[in-house]
Write a structure and sequence with these properties.
Gyrase A, domain 2, OB fold (Dihydrolipoamide Acetyltransferase, E2P), 5-stranded mixed barrel, 637 residues, binds aspartic acid, 3 domains, alpha+beta, 29% helix, aminoacyl-trna synthetase, single chain, BirA Bifunctional Protein, domain 2, disordered N terminus, 8-stranded mixed β-sheet
């Protein structure tokens, strides 16, 4: 998490006023007036030696109070030291402030003074001054806290979520949400003011759409009929292009009922974009400009254009369609070197049409990976990918140690060393088998090994470095996971085929590449989009003949494409994921004000919740209780 770096610049609220003012790049507007419309004169992060002698009124929470002598007052912008008066005339102020529990919210009025020499706090942006209180008021006292509002105090995530409003008082969450707001503001500026996009809100009560993620259903008063919460505004944004809006964007709420999946949220936010008369390169340049414009200055700068890699290259070299290009350890094809060997499992693998032999080389793996690490890597390849792994190590004298070496001549061994660029103490993990399975297993081991190396103290993936990458030329269709003889869209069914593969759509759809592009940041997919099919007959063919979907559910879209629909394309950026990477948060929950738990629950308000049978009646719904719940006491009866 970014916190340690931020903490390094100060105490709990390290110069945060400054950080938040200057969070965005290039020609940032003047700092906003935080004191308009309210009776405070200043925020708690604002006072400097230039204010000495002024009478000020501050509002904030008591962060800390010491022996009735002083306290530290906190608001969203920083901390100010408040000196509690000790003289008789102010005895009631002293009592009030000394008795107030921490996190009580107070108003203080007093005079700004310089701190006595030697007592300045260089780590606090207000560290040169203190405020000598004249009057004070406890606006609301705080009962015993479930946890301390300090970033370095460890608390369980369930407790943080149960008291989210308290967790929001922490520096880190304040910082994350404010930075998110500034980035979105800059995105709006770039899209609307600089490039003429129109911010259009689209419905969130809609109908079920074929393919893609599972949607949440919302009951309606018409018996048996349900709305769906859209997984994205995909259809609406395309219909806006048919409607001549030309350039659309929306900070769009999307819903996916995907059950418990790590670091996913059932509702999340996309920066959703669609343009008419655009091609893939046009969308890519737009997104590069957008990110560059809205990139926070304190996170360094990003260079454009972003590099690009085909899906095939990504799979071959990194074993995934979202490669983390911050470090090497690429997958190397060693089939040619081993083809002439007598190794049975290698020969078996290579005899199949999609057979391959590949490996990754973990630099200094022998020194940093323990036996149990190696075992757990092998176990993980076996359990996740059903893939056996064999290891080769490079001894101090440069020779190879492995079960395979006795089958390899000296020449083959040195060819292998060269191909894998092996050095003393390097560890090679080798896999033979079906191409996709081998690549995926090695891709996953590459990341797991990087975790192990980093846990041992090496830095492979510097969190301050941002590697953006376009992945392009995806296949238009992929075999369905549960039934590989059927096809599903690699992106979604509205994606257009690659112009040079269009005729293959009708002869061999499995070979068609698409005009789908994904944006990857440090190994995470942060965006995806495509140029769309804009002709009804091609869209109907894809839905009915290739995907075997009932095109009737999409008849409105198919019909719209018949009324002069312009060529169009778009993209959506996953805002939560993007911000979490920018602030180096361990989870997307850390950049969402009120996130759901891993199981999709709101732990603060206890949603989802039961409703009474009477409330369900207008929707023609009856709950058929699972036995366990029937036997347990139903909270509503
Ligand atoms: N609607 C797509 C998604 O949510 C993005 C796009 O194709 O524009 O992934």
């Amino acid at each position: 998490m970014a916190l340690p770096r931020l903490l390094a610049r100060g105490l709990a609220w390290p110069g945060c006023g400054r950080a938040l003012h200057r969070a965005t790049s290039a020609s940032a507007p003047a700092a906003p007036d935080f004191n308009s419309f309210v009776t405070r004169t200043n925020t708690c992060g604002e006072l400097r030696s230039a204010h000495v002698g002024q009478e000020v009124t501050l509002y904030g929470w008591i962060q800390y109070q010491r022996q009735g002598l002083f306290l530290v007052l906190r608001d969203f912008q920083g901390l100010t030291q408040i000196i509690i008066p000790q003289d008789e005339a102010h005895s009631h102020v002293k009592k009030l402030l000394s008795d107030a529990p921490v996190e009580s919210v107070v108003r203080v009025t007093g005079i700004v003074s310089l701190r006595p020499p030697g007592q300045e706090n260089l780590k606090m942006s207000t560290g040169d001054i203190e405020v000598k209180v004249e009057t004070a008021e406890i606006l609301n006292s705080c009962k015993k806290l479930p946890f301390e509002i300090k970033d370095f105090i460890k608390k369980t995530e369930a407790l943080r979520m149960r008291y989210r409003y308290l967790d929001l008082r922490s520096f880190q969450l304040q910082y994350n949400l404010r930075l998110r707001s500034q980035i979105v503001m800059r995105m709006r500026e770039y899209l609307c003011n600089l490039h003429g996009f129109v911010d259009v809100e689209t419905p969130t009560l809609f109908k079920r759409t074929p393919g893609g993620a599972k949607e949440f259903l919302v009951p309606s008063r018409e018996a048996g009929k349900f709305y769906s919460l859209p997984q994205s505004p995909q259809q609406f944004k395309q219909l806006l292009m048919v409607g001549g809006l030309d350039r659309y964007f929306q900070v769009a709420r999307c819903y996916r009922d995907e059950g418990s999946r790590p670091d996913r949220q059932p509702e999340f936010t996309q920066i959703d974009i669609e343009m008419s008369f655009v091609d893939q390169a046009g969308i890519q340049r737009l997104i590069e400009g957008l990110l560059q414009y809205s990139w926070p200055e304190e996170r360094g700068s990003i260079t454009t254009p972003f590099p690009s890699m085909t899906y095939e290259e990504a799979l071959a070299d990194y074993g995934t369609d979202k490669p983390d290009t911050r470090f090497g350890m690429k997958i190397v094809d060693i089939g040619d070197f081993l083809r002439r060997s007598d190794i049975q499992f290698v020969q078996n693998a290579l005899s199949y049409p999609h057979g391959t032999v590949k490996a990754i080389c973990i630099p200094q793996g022998v020194r940093y990976l323990k036996n149990k690490d190696l075992e757990s890597l092998k176990e993980s390849a076996k359990s996740q990918f059903n893939q056996e792994i064999m290891e080769i190590i490079c001894r101090p004298d440069g020779s190879l140690k492995s079960l395979l070496t006795k089958f390899l001549g000296e020449k083959q061994q040195s060819e292998l060393i060269q191909a894998l660029n092996m050095q003393v103490d390097d560890l090679v993990l080798l896999a033979a088998g079906e191409y996709k399975q081998v690549c995926s297993a090695l891709g996953s081991l590459r990341l797991e090994s990087a975790d192990i190396l980093e846990a041992a103290g090496l830095v492979l993936r510097d969190p301050t470095v941002f590697h953006f990458l376009w992945v392009v030329d995806f296949p238009l269709f992929l075999p369905k996971g549960e039934n590989p003889t059927e096809l599903e869209s690699a992106h979604h069914p509205f994606t257009a085929p690659h112009p040079s593969d269009t005729s293959l759509l009708y002869s061999d759809p499995t070979k068609v590449r698409s005009q789908h592009y994904d944006l990857v940041l440090n190994g995470n997919e942060v965006g995806g989009g495509s140029i769309r099919i804009h002709r009804a007959e091609q869209q109907r063919f894809v839905l009915e003949k290739v995907l075997k979907e009932d095109s009737e559910v999409l008849s409105h879209l198919l019909e719209a494409l018949e009324f002069g629909a312009p060529p169009h394309g778009g993209i959506a950026l996953g805002l939560d994921r993007l911000i979490s990477l920018i602030v180096d948060a361990p989870s997307i929950r850390d950049v969402i004000a009120f996130p759901k738990s891993f199981k999709g629950r709101d732990l603060m308000g206890s949603a989802p919740d039961y409703v009474t049978p009477e409330e369900l009646e207008p929707y023609h719904i009856q709950v058929s209780w699972p036995l366990a719940e029937k036997e347990a006491k139903n909270p509503l009866t």
